[in-house]
From TrEMBL:
Phylogenetic placement of the source organism: Eukaryota, Metazoa, Ecdysozoa, Scalidophora, Priapulida
One Pfam family recorded for the sequence: PI3Ka
Name used for this protein in its record: Phosphatidylinositol 4,5-bisphosphate 3-kinase catalytic subunit alpha isoform-like
C2 PI3K-type domain boundaries: 1-94
Domain PI3K/PI4K catalytic: 372-667
InterPro entries in the cross-refs: ARM-type_fold, C2_domain_sf, Kinase-like_dom_sf, PI3/4_kinase, PI3/4_kinase_cat_dom, PI3/4_kinase_cat_sf, PI3/4_kinase_CS, PI3K-type_C2_dom
Amino acid sequence: MDLPRCARLSLSLCSLAKRKKGKEEYCAIAWGNIMLFDYKSQSRSDKFSIYLWPMPKNIDDLQNPLGICGSNPNKDSPCLELEFDRYIHPVVFPNDAQIEQYANFLNGIDPNSAHARGSTVAPASKLTTEVCDEDLEQLREIVKRDPLSETSEQEKELLWRLRHECKEMPDSLPRLLDVVRWNCRDDVSHLYTLLKDWPTVSPETALELLDCTYPDLRVREFAVSCLGENLSDDQLSQYLLQLVQVMKYELYVNNALSKFLLKKALINTRIGHFFFWHIKAEMQHFSSTHLRFGLLLEAYCRGCGAYLKELNKQVEALEKLTKLSHSLKERKEDSQKAIKYMLEQVGQADYLEALKDFSSPIDNSFTLGELIIEECKILGSAKRPLWLVWKNKDSMADKLHPTNSIIFKSGDDLRQDMLTLQVIRIMDDIWKNEGYDLRMMPYCCLATGKEVGMIQVVQNAETVFHIQKGGGKKAAFQVDSSQLHRWIKEKSRLKAVGQHAEEKAYESAIETFTLSCAGYCVATFVLGIGDRHPDNIMVNEEGQIFHIDFGHFLHHIKKKYGIKRERVPFVLTEDFMRVIAKDADYPTKTKEFEKFNELCGKAYLCLRRHANLFITLFTMMLNAGIPELQSFDDVEYLRKTLAVEKKEQQAIEYFQAQFHEAYGGAWTTKLDWFFHGVKHM
């Protein structure tokens, strides 16, 4: 058996517990990974000590093979002493020239070896190298599959036999890599020779090549080179969250991906800004990333020039807010006393100085002016998030918004919200590229540390529950479903001057609501967003509906007494349907609702055509430690909602069935919302 270049030894220290009936239960308490080849391509030899890392709480396996390689710098941790075989001369992995020479040697023995695999090879004269149309059609079908699809042994043989034909379909590379026997020097030699001249792949395929499935150095270097050629700065900003995560899968600190991201961060200030905060946040989540990400952070700070002063200002402001948030939780006072204490603190000279005139961490394109103390408050939540209001220093502030409001949260991991909002933003771009502007509202959210972060406040918006409460108890307790429509109509009337303008504003608001409702119905269905009560859905004065607080996704639904609270694929209540149908008595029988249904179906098919991208983005986040995204089984939910194994007609029929279930089961949502109203009135 041949040893791959990326081979690693995964170790763990386990405890053994004796259970009833003599059963034994193992539990990993510490882990460690080491590369069997060092960065010089020399194999390990002689004695080696490795200090282990404590096992993360969310990993149930006995090993952590995806964890970073290297020893724990904490010398108080458990240590394992290993001894490898010693040789007279260093054992070095073959270089490019040697690998190419060996591949040519294989082809010399059997010129048709490119089309043969296995221990027994027929004589060259009897081998057929012709490729029939049927084989090519099957190859195209395999290539179109999603990253988590299974490939049969016969299909693997076909892929390998037609690997030269795969070059005509560059994005087939991940499927070809899936069938390579990495412990076989013949396969690896043929692959490396192919990879040398492989055409550039799309950015989406390059992202897939950087997840945990493909640790090989050459593959990852090729993927980075493709990103460098095809990925615009806007696209890089869009995928930066995932690209920071997959740096954990790089074999060594000095790698192509880190250098690529560092170069982009130093050239583009906006990329650099979020690169800084993503790296800083990850360092606080995982001690095993301290060295690697710490070196990257230092390199960026040394090279970013004058912007370092601005970043220091942001860090100082967030440290003040974190300190204030912790002290508020420790005091455990009632809301009035807590607010009084908060206002006293932010009114002190050191707070006022630290919290003024700095770029917003969630969007460095605008500057936060002076803190408006009298408008700051504490939101009614166990985590006591802070609602903070600054003067808008923009020269156009009077015509836009005179203030900027941000929610500062401490005690919640906002990375799940970040991921959800990022994907919704990508969905919005896909729809716009297809000619559908669904008026989405993917507001800004940024995790700045471990369970610390900031959320943008959307101006002139209210929660659906707040709007319903304005209509009295009947609306709040889900008896009257017309209050939301009345609120939107009233806001349209207040904005307009004259009857014609009022009608135009009303029609515009209904259109905006219909489009945005379609977008969020499809998005929340595909992503399996849970906990959709009326305080987690908002509407602004233009009629734009949007969802907030994404603490549950991929169908991790809340339960009460063992019963699932949410029983529909997505929220489509009678309140929403009445707005779409302009307050008709039977909204589902109107032309407006029929058009809404058709629009949802078209939006769904648009996303389905990009299923591979969504699956890849979630797969790349598996090592982030997000509680509801721990394994490929969690990502499988996307394969189900996007119906990747169905034909397009079957997929739209599947979605329509889910759509009918959503509005047909709207009474279960109303019941859930009724109990929410009883609890919070």
